[in-house]
Amino acid sequence: LNIALLAGDGIGPEVIDQAVKVSNAVAAKFGHEIAWTSGLTGAAAIDAVGEPYPDSTHEICMAADAVLFGAIGHPRFDNDPTAKVRPEQGLLKMRKALGLYANVRPTFTFPSLIDNSPLKRERIEGTDLIILRELTGGIYFGARGRSEDGNTAYDTCTYTKDEVTRLAKLGFELAMTRGKKLCCVDKANVLETSRLWRQTVQAMEKDYPEVTVSYEFVDAVAMRLVQWPNSYDVLITENLFGDILTDEASVISGSMGLMPSASKGVHTSLYEPIHGSYPQAAGKDIANPLATVLSAAMMFEDAFGLTEEAEAIRVVVNKSLADGIVTEDLAGKNKAYKTSEVGDWLA
Amino acid sequence: LNIALLAGDGIGPEVIDQAVKVSNAVAAKFGHEIAWTSGLTGAAAIDAVGEPYPDSTHEICMAADAVLFGAIGHPRFDNDPTAKVRPEQGLLKMRKALGLYANVRPTFTFPSLIDNSPLKRERIEGTDLIILRELTGGIYFGARGRSEDGNTAYDTCTYTKDEVTRLAKLGFELAMTRGKKLCCVDKANVLETSRLWRQTVQAMEKDYPEVTVSYEFVDAVAMRLVQWPNSYDVLITENLFGDILTDEASVISGSMGLMPSASKGVHTSLYEPIHGSYPQAAGKDIANPLATVLSAAMMFEDAFGLTEEAEAIRVVVNKSLADGIVTEDLAGKNKAYKTSEVGDWLA
Ligand SMILES: CC(C)[C@H](C(=O)O)[C@@H](O)C(=O)O
Ligand SMILES: CC(C)[C@H](C(=O)O)[C@@H](O)C(=O)O
Fold it and tell me: What's the pTM value of the predicted model, to 2 decimals?
């Protein structure tokens, strides 16, 4: 198994280390061999070679069967959004270059962690939804600029029917393997791109007669995600709405430190925890590695079709939760284990 | 007091009736006279004259010192976002024509209703925030269209420095009268318009040295609103982000049926409940009128500077909650009163 390893910034390297340990252990147990190839990204890459997603990293990713990713972002860039080179540019460049068109973001609950949710138990119990966020189009990649005097700015959101079809197809197919409900999230009462989304999805409905499709405005979904997250199955949406809604969804489960994600690509696919680079914890060996470990599980399953291997990882993660072999964010009044100790235990 | 009355669709007319009763009672008590002038809007206006915001209604609003608004929207338009004439167009046309540039959306809690919140008590207690949403710019009003074959669509988001300054000024001033904290919500790591927002607000900081200003990305705010809503004071943001975040914020208090709002205008200002037209309840005399009554209180205070009158309305609303003179959504196992009965009692 040929895997590119992009540890990135902040806690990225620490949590990636644990996912590597666990992946190697699973590979050994099931008789696979993994060839890991590391590449630089983010602030780490800016420091080393002046660019957040260097060509050398891109080549590593293109040559791999899957990419395991930590996190990027560094506080020294945060209050300077106009800095010439920023870690996030690397992220966007990587998404575009690898054709990572669909960000797959599950939100589910762990029974033992449900009381960590800001929501009441009865609101969150049973939640098991997936948001598919379009990741290489929309206002993230449209034309933007300023007037000559700098006093007027614009951004352009563009979508083509093919872009919508590609994402929606994944959504319909995913819904077929699950609860058979698909919600198309848009703002079709205002935006032309949203009307294109809605028409395109409407035209696809007949090919998936078993899937119940609903169309909801993004503002309504922002509400319902807090009120009744367990009423959703699969949601599909454009890039910017997806950015906002996936983050909103991530905090409702109470298990943000455990949520994995995948980004399906044209060339290769990428697996990453959703928690970000969490710079305050970097280097302290306290970050929760479970989301990254579960991202590796997604990788085994999606990228290599290795379902048993993925399941083995999920089983041991559940066991670590049940036995309290967890980092300080989950330990409560019990003993907190170090990041590396949790990784060793899982492996 | 010259007030334009736009009842609109769904439960609009019923809840507006109660606000009129209460306003008239307050006016009588404090020695004012109110001249109400009604205008058609929304689906009701489409049915009557073919347009959701007819010129005659605009003239009524322009001649008034304030506009009291119910709600617009009708289900028969909902699944047809491409219909030629839609109620929402009236809303957008009205906002633009009246120059309603700032939507003021408070989220606060009523101690007696706190357990209705989907959030746990300790998360929501003490929440008292205001989102200022820019309402006449951005992607709502930019150029949009399709390619000739219909397969590519675009929308444009535009902002000028003056538009940002006008909204931010209101935000700084509001913060000065409250907790002196201002959060500028943007996506400055991606969007040029957001960078203009951030720069403009940054340049204004020196004029309000007492206000602590923070800059947060919209995705982070979508999370923190669910996690720690009580950490915010005043938030300012652009039109589309504001649409999503104000609706998200509205459900966290557990008192959506009570949340009023104001839209500050160049020509006149408008006051409305945030709950929408709620067509399922229309005509049944069961809708909760309190948000509209509290919007009238905002109107007395903001549009006419009548603080005591506003306070009198708030006091009687609190009393209705304490005495259980409430509609079915708040009654629990106790007797539910009709919309009109609540209005009579308050008056
Ligand atoms: C860092 C930023 C550009 C990025 C995005 O908005 O896509 C992040 O928020 C994410 O969701 O991965
Ligand atoms: C109906 C729609 C156009 C409107 C908006 O998006 O502004 C509504 O959602 C609102 O927030 O008032």
Answer: 0.96
